[in-house]
Design the sequence.
């Protein structure tokens, strides 16, 4: 083969290789009409405390718009029930509870990855009544007097545990023998008994609110966020923070998550993104 022909073949080969490389680069990202990234194929399953439902639905919609990540049918339950679902083998990428104690259990049982645990939001405990009840400035002492009928969450509902803790400070709740002599922040608000009052117990804060909204009871103890979430009730008293444990919502990536990094990214986005913060604040939550 002559020298000129060899040069021509090598030159043509180089040009062809360049064209192939250019086409490959275009297919990988140079074309604005290229297929979406792998992130858009991710679907997260979240188990979250009942009280987060409205805020979380709005936050998820915004996150999908921003990232392409979608969400399965998010399960909103009492925090204790979320742990029971994980214990029974239900799949989730993220768990967000309404109490540190419930998340402590999730960590101890191995349901979540402790290294991803993050305190996400805080809340406030309030006394509510049916709108237009004309009640105001109701206190724990008023409730303990037995003047009003009351509804609170049962032992599986963190809002009910916080209510029991608060009521113990005015003698309306007696903790179990294992916590004898303790009150308020020092007790769990579980496995005790009410003293001098007989509240109606419900399995979710939504049901607690509904009892007050319908006028089935005079008062209910719920989170301030529930007033935004459900409506139909009005705040007639605020329970002092020093009568119960701090109301904190921890979130963590579940141990069996197939999307651990994406799940952790969403948790961090909820607490750092300015638009996400506005959503949660609008629904009555404060950032932790």
Sequence:
């Amino acid at each position: 083969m002559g020298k000129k022909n060899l040069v021509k073949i090598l030159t043509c080969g180089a040009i062809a290789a360049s064209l192939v490389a250019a086409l490959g680069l275009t297919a990988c990202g140079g074309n604005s009409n290229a297929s979406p990234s792998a992130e858009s194929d991710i679907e997260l399953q979240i188990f979250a405390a009942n009280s987060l439902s409205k805020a979380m639905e709005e936050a998820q919609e915004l996150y999908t718009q921003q990232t392409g990540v979608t969400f399965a049918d998010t399960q909103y339950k009492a925090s204790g029930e979320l742990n029971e679902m994980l214990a029974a083998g239900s799949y989730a990428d993220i768990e967000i509870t309404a109490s540190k104690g419930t998340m402590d259990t999730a960590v101890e049982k191995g349901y979540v990855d402790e290294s991803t645990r993050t305190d996400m939001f805080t809340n406030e405990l309030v006394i509510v009544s049916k709108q237009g009840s004309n009640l105001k400035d109701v206190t724990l002492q008023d409730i303990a007097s037995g003047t009003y009928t009351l509804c609170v969450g049962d032992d599986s509902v963190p809002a009910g545990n916080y209510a029991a803790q608060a009521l113990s400070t005015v003698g309306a709740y007696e903790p179990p023998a294992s916590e004898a002599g303790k009150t308020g922040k020092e007790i769990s608000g579980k496995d005790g008994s009410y003293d001098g009052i007989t509240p109606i117990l419900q399995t979710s804060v939504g049901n607690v609110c509904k009892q007050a909204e319908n006028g089935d009871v005079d008062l209910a103890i719920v989170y301030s966020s529930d007033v935004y979430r459900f409506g139909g009730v009005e705040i007639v008293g605020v329970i002092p923070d020093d009568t119960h444990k701090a109301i904190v919502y921890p979130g963590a990536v579940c141990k069996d998550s197939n999307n651990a990094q994406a799940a952790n990214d969403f948790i961090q986005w909820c607490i750092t993104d300015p638009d996400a913060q506005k959503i949660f604040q609008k629904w009555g939550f404060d950032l932790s």
The longest strand covers residues 125-130.
